[in-house]
């Protein structure tokens, strides 16, 4: 099988790594890729946001399967464009990706499917925002309706900050959900859902969950504190009803349905849906997956998931994100990175915002690396990940020191 992976984050590096370990995968192309994916895959340039360009590339490399990593290409219709050429795509249509692209649409689907989620109001005027903030009370949760790379949400006790975030935007104001968060991925062919293994993400930039939200600063899996029936419960009450509702609407969801949930005192509630693999959760989930990934994604893309089972390692996996100066604001780029080879002997150093220039690896984005380790216990995996992090140097590098602690 020839696989084309679209994207350039640590998630795509993790996908390329897992695909490279699948004996059924003969060739991998990653576009636009980064300095890390270049070691496992042929690199091609593409504008991921241009569906025609993605489909043209799939034709040019004769891809048997196109795996679309990030949300924005999906929302723009990359999967539709690839399928229109008679090729297999892993990833939802633009219509189905709206489950991530519009918070209001996601809430609609959840209401229709009877999926538990935070109470919410969709607001277009300041008066509506104020009424909703009064109704739910602090801490206030205000979300921009569209895609925002994890940064369109504020959770704050500060009323003025909450109203400011809503200014000039269509927003969803929500009830605050209190409780530990879990991410669970469901691989689906549009009918059958195959749950993966749960992971926890660390969304805030600073230790102790302080500072602004980011795309994710680290993750671990499994979750030893989670109830035994967690995966089964989420599959039954969240993933399957959502997939069924999308099919009922005539916009079947095929690809990866990511459920972000809070385990509240009043039970499980969905915080968000994403239409693709989570980043950095993918790095730890795939580190534990024993089943060849290419075969699973191909089955999802072609509608044969009911015969597939997933096999998981009992090992724990931990990933720590190393970010550039300025992130989650505007990051400084073009800084040389040292110590990669040394760190690579201890952990999988998955690249995100990196590029190669004259054989040297330079920073090229906000989240730069996702340093991923496994071990017989979470503590062992965590120690290895931080040991590798300590070997890597670039000016302004910052990371959380409390991932999986
Ligand atoms: P989202 O973009 O919807 O995933 O939100 C990003 C992060 O904000 C989530 O992972 C949570 O940590 C936090 N968050 C979002 N919605 C809520 C909520 N209703 N209650 C508490 N925290 C939330
Ligand atoms: N780690 C959160 C996300 O992928 O949206």
Index terms:
Rossmann fold; globular; 13 helices; 22 strands; binds glycine; alpha+beta; 405 residues; Dna Ligase, domain 1; 32% helix
Describe the structure.
The chain has 13 helices and 22 strands. With 405 residues, the protein is of the alpha+beta class. Strands 3-2-1-4-5 form a 5-stranded parallel beta sheet, sandwiched between helices. Helix 2 crosses helix 4. Residues 118, 141, 143, 150, 153, 155, 174, 176-177, 181, 203, 213, 260, 271-272 line the site of adenosine monophosphate.
Outline the secondary-structure elements.
Layout: E1 2-7, H1 10-20, E2 27-32, E3 42-43, H2 51-60, E4 65-68, H3 71-76, H4 78-84, E5 88-90, H5 94-101, H6 103-113, E6 120-123, H7 126-136, E7 140-144, E8 153-156, H8 159-166, E9 171-174, E10 181-188, E11 193-195, E12 200-201, E13 204-206, E14 210-213, E15 218-221, H9 230-248, E16 255-264, E17 267-274, H10 281-288, H11 293-302, E18 316-323, H12 340-344, E19 348-351, E20 354-357, E21 360-363, E22 367-375, H13 378-391
Parallel strand pairs: 1-2, 1-4, 2-3, 4-5
Antiparallel strand pairs: 6-9, 7-8, 7-9, 10-11, 10-16, 12-15, 13-14, 15-18, 16-17, 18-22, 19-22, 20-21
Helix pairs in contact: 1-10, 2-4, 5-6, 6-9, 7-8
Bound molecules: adenosine monophosphate (AMP) and glycine.
């Amino acid at each position: 099988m020839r696989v084309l992976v679209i994207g350039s984050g640590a998630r795509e590096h993790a996908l390329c790594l897992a695909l490279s370990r699948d004996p059924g995968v003969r060739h991998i192309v990653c576009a636009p890729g980064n300095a890390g994916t270049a070691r496992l895959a042929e690199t091609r340039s593409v504008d991921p946001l241009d569906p025609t360009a993605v489909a043209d590339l799939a034709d040019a490399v004769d891809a048997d399967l196109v795996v679309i990593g990030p949300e924005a290409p999906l929302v723009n219709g990359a999967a539709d464009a690839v399928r229109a050429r008679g090729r297999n795509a892993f990833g939802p249509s633009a219509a189905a990706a709206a489950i991530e692209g519009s918070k209001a649409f996601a809430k609609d689907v959840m209401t229709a499917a009877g999926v538990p989620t935070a109470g919410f109001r969709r607001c277009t005027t300041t008066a509506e925002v104020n009424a909703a903030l009064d109704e739910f009370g602090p801490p206030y949760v205000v979300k921009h309706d569209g895609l925002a790379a994890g940064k369109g949400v504020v959770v704050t006790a500060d009323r003025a900050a909450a109203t400011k975030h809503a200014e000039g935007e269509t927003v969803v104001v929500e009830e605050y959900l209190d409780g530990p968060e879990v991410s669970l991925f469901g691989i689906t062919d549009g009918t059958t859902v195959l749950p993966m293994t749960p992971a926890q993400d660390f969304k805030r930039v600073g230790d102790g969950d302080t500072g602004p939200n980011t795309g994710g600063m680290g993750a671990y899996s499994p979750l030893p504190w989670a109830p035994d029936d967690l995966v089964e419960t989420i599959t039954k009450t969240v993933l399957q009803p959502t997939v069924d509702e999308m099919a009922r609407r005539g916009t079947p969801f095929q690809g990866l349905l990511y459920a972000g949930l809070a385990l509240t005192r009043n039970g499980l509630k969905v915080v968000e849906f994403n239409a693709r693999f989570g980043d950095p959760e993918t790095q730890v989930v795939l580190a534990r997956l024993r089943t060849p990934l290419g075969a699973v994604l191909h089955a999802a893309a072609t509608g044969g998931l009911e015969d597939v089972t997933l096999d998981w390692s009992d090992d724990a996996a931990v990933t720590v994100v190393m970010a550039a100066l300025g992130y989650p604001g505007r990051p400084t780029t073009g800084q040389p990175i040292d110590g990669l080879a040394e760190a690579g002997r201890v952990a999988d150093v998955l690249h995100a915002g990196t590029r190669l220039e004259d054989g040297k690896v330079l920073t090229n984005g906000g989240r730069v690396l996702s340093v991923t380790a496994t071990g017989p216990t979470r503590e062992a995996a965590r120690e290895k990940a931080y040991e590798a992090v300590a070997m890597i140097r670039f000016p302004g590098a910052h990371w959380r020191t409390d991932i999986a602690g």
